[in-house]
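Student:
Attend to each token:
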Amino acid sequence: MKVILFAMLFIASTGCKPKTIQQDKSVAVTQEKVDTTPVVIQKDLQNYETAYFASGCFWCVEAIFESVKGVEEVYSGYSGGFEKNPTYEEVAYGRTHHAEAVEVYYDPEIISFTELVQVFFGSHDPTSLNRQGPDRGAQYRSVAFYKDKEQKNIIKKYIETLEASKVYGRPIVTQVVKFNKFYKAEDYHQDYEKRNPNNSYIRNVSIPRLNRFKENFKSYLKEESH
């Protein structure tokens, strides 16, 4: 199985939150003006498979998976907790057990679940506990969700391969969790990176993270993403 080493560089001055807060010894982050234009989504996605991942700020993760061939749509949202209908304020403040996550609609004839798992591990630091870059807290933890035993085995075996190959200098802390429920985030979070290119977090964290992914996964990209 192909093993890809992806070194992540982070900027600690901004965070994936909309306003200044102080959270469990974390650094305060600043409010940014965002595009709150409603997102109208009318795609017919019933013929696509779904996969679910969490690896830090969902603005970043959504943009990464949307650049991958065979992926038709990606939604930002919340998963991994038990609270019903969580809001961004609740999740961002760490008031729920949910993580910021994405729902990926993909064509398995073009890209496999195994390859999506490779994209997941190759686009973030799976050895960082409850943190990705400037974003701290369990809501930013690394989670690979599985829907059945086959998917669970794929994730587990890939982790074993990464660790056996010593790709990372530290143990992988990614949670491998049975998928239960995905709550779609508020409309203004969808396609956030595309609609807010001048946001300081997007410029300094999200876009560089996306570009590093593209550099390491050129064969996985859609034509328009090159």
